[in-house]
Design goal:
The chain is an alpha+beta fold. Helix content is about 45%, strand content about 15%. Keywords: Flavoprotein, FMN, NADP, Oxidoreductase.
Length: about 210
């Protein structure tokens, strides 16, 4: 099957089979795909929480309007944007580049100047929005990768970010919950899996110039 065929197969699963769990290798593959997700300048302006603890998930379900996917999926993935990006964050990134590529940090002065200049030229609100956009890119990679592996993934925005931050202690970590995804395997009786996928026609969606 091509990736297009697999994207036709996927849907936003509403009812997960609580008896089916991702194997450790499957979960590792999904997380590696997220790790490889592109981001602006490669900064990866977010962290990814993998929630399995049933007590924590029960609390999160209450903060997500009681949606069953929160507790019934194999794992709940939370993309939490960096809320306090600063020069230190940028400098840490440059150190990482130097370490991984085995080059002298001084040779990256041009890149460092660009990174720090970009961070310093934006307001805290702009920096947060920038980080949140990158989290959504990672979410897209997760959804496509899950489909490729035959794993169901449901991206979700229906939750109270402030309550999620409180339950998970994210504010103290300089993070804020941005978007979430439930991953696992669809229940056989999920009626939504039988519905025809609805998308805008290509003639309405695409503009060729």
């Amino acid at each position: 099957m091509s990736i297009v065929d697999k994207l036709k197969w996927r849907y936003a699963t509403k009812k997960f089979d609580t008896n089916k769990k991702l194997s450790p290798p499957q979960l590792d593959q999904l997380l590696e795909a997220i790790q490889l997700s592109p981001s602006s300048i490669g900064l990866q302006h977010y962290k990814v929480l993998v929630i399995e603890n049933p007590e924590v998930r029960a609390k999160l379900r209450e903060a997500a309007y009681g949606q069953p996917q929160i507790t019934d999926a194999s794992q709940l993935i939370i993309f939490a944007a960096e809320a306090n990006m600063d020069e230190a964050y940028g400098k840490n990134f440059i150190s990482l580049v130097a370490d991984i590529r085995g080059v002298e940090r001084e040779s990256l002065a041009g890149l460092e100047g660009m990174v720090l200049g970009t961070i310093n030229s934006r307001t805290p609100e702009q920096l947060l929005l920038w980080a949140q956009k990158q989290a959504y890119i990672a979410l897209g990679v997760l959804v496509a990768s899950a489909a490729d592996l035959g794993i169901d993934a449901t991206p979700m925005e229906g939750f109270d970010p402030a309550k999620f931050d409180e339950i998970l202690g994210l504010k103290e970590k300089g993070l804020t919950a941005t978007v979430i995804a439930a991953v696992g395997f669809r229940a056989d009786d999920d009626q939504y899996s039988k519905l025809v996928k609805v998308r805008r026609p290509k003639t309405e969606l695409f503009i060729h110039i």
